[in-house]
Amino acid sequence: MSIDTALHQLVERIRAAATQATPLSIRGGGTKDFYGEAPQGEVLDTRSLTGITSYEPSELVVTVRAGTPLAELEAALAEKGQCLPFEPPRFGNGGTVGGMVAAGLSGPARASVGAVRDYVLGATLVNGRGDVLSFGGQVMKNVAGYDVSRVLAGSLGTLGVIAEVSLKVLPVPPAEATLEFACGQADALRLLNEWGGRPLPLNASCWFEYAGAGALYLRLRGAVAAVEAACAHLGGERKDDLRAAADWQSLRDQQLPWFSTHEGGDALWRLSVPQTVPVLSLDGAAAPLIEWRGGQRWYKAPPGQAARIREIARAAGGHATLFRLPAAAVQSHEPRFDSMSAPIERIQRALMREFDPHGLFHRGRLLASS
């Protein structure tokens, strides 16, 4: 099926749904169905929108259709020695480029290289009227008003169907090393803040406890000389490159044992806080797994502790997301996302009304009160 045919069929499906007031649930590979409020409506499959439209390695830009498997895009980039530096989590096979943008999730390197939205240069969107709209382009240039192509990152399909995106890519760094330091949580946060103020090629970090002992892992990336000098300066135990690379991939996809080991009623919580926030005390919760130099902290705690967890996150200047529910609590009525500030929510709802006036795309996926 050609892209023109696939896009035409998708547009006609949306227009028919608008006429019949039929809610739609946009879906690619379904690998992130767990994220956000539960999808509702008839499934609108985007996987017919496949293929890399254009790729200019010398320009560091790729344009790809939204239903293209993320694995296919990453393989094409790897052949040219390039990558998506924000390391989007995949959570399994079959995830698509459109789902990557719609979810807006970034991996271990987020604190050093930026988020998904920072790499979205342009996008083609089919809105709730069935109109095909194009935003941005293939250069890093903003204009007055909303940068809609970047607003799509993290929108969870509430603004429309992403049909195509242009992404900035980067060369794979020439050198990489992973260092391990035995330390507790407080010392790990102190070290990360100290190192963050130095000219070091820091790329990713991870601290967690295993069998009662805390360990901080630090990934360095950059020029060979810079990585080697940093290793000599920082010390620690240098890990085997192949084993370390596999472990970072496991962290990216939440396949580390820490994520799979939980009490029966525990949910997975993500706390986004300023990197300088000290150790947070969550009564009864085990030690967290900490990424992004202290900025992202994963906890395992029951959904019923939502009010207390969110209060702690807000007091620290951040917010908490109920990221994954335990199997026994899939029907929990606890909102997945923290409440937005009134001004931000007004803007978000105004965007939804503008792009999807008929409410086809289930605004409640992002805003539980919709």
- Helical fraction equals 25-40%
The separation of the N and C termini measures 36 Å
Mean pLDDT: 92
Describe the strand arrangement of the main beta sheet, using strand numbers: 13-10-12-11-15-16-14-17
Structural class by helix and strand composition? alpha+beta
Estimated radius of gyration = 21 Å
Tally of distinct domains:
3
User: The CATH topology of the largest domain, please?
Assistant: Uridine Diphospho-n-acetylenolpyruvylglucosamine Reductase, domain 3
Biggest β-sheet strands, sense, barrel: 8 strands, antiparallel
* Pattern of helices and strands: HEEEEHEHHEEHEEEHEEHEHHEEEHEH
CATH C-level class of the largest domain is Alpha Beta
Count of alpha/pi helices: 11
- What is the architecture of the largest domain at the second tier of CATH? 2-Layer Sandwich
Uncertain runs are 139-145
Number of strands: 17
What does this structure look like?
The protein is of the alpha+beta class. It folds into three domains: 3-171 and 350-365, Uridine Diphospho-n-acetylenolpyruvylglucosamine Reductase, domain 3, CATH 3.30.465.10; 173-257, 2-Layer Sandwich (Alpha-Beta Plaits), CATH 3.30.70; 262-338. Helix content is 29%, strand content 25%. The chain has eleven helices and 17 strands. The protein has helices at residues 3-20, 70-79, 97-103, 110-113, 148-151, 185-196, 224-234, 241-252, 257-260, 306-315, 342-355, and strands at residues 24-27, 42-45, 52-56, 61-65, 82-83, 120-126, 132-136, 161-168, 170-171, 175-182, 202-210, 213-222, 237-238, 267-272, 289-291, 296-301, 319-324. An eight-stranded antiparallel sheet has the order 13-10-12-11-15-16-14-17, with helices on both faces. A hairpin with a 4-residue loop joins strand 15 and strand 16 (296-301). The longest helix has 18 residues, at 3-20. The radius of gyration is 21 Å and the shape is globular. Mean pLDDT is 92; it is low at 139-145. GO terms for molecular function: catalytic activity; FAD binding. This is Glycolate oxidase subunit GlcE. It holds the Pfam family FAD_binding_4. Residues 1-172 form the FAD-binding PCMH-type domain. Keywords: FAD, Flavoprotein.
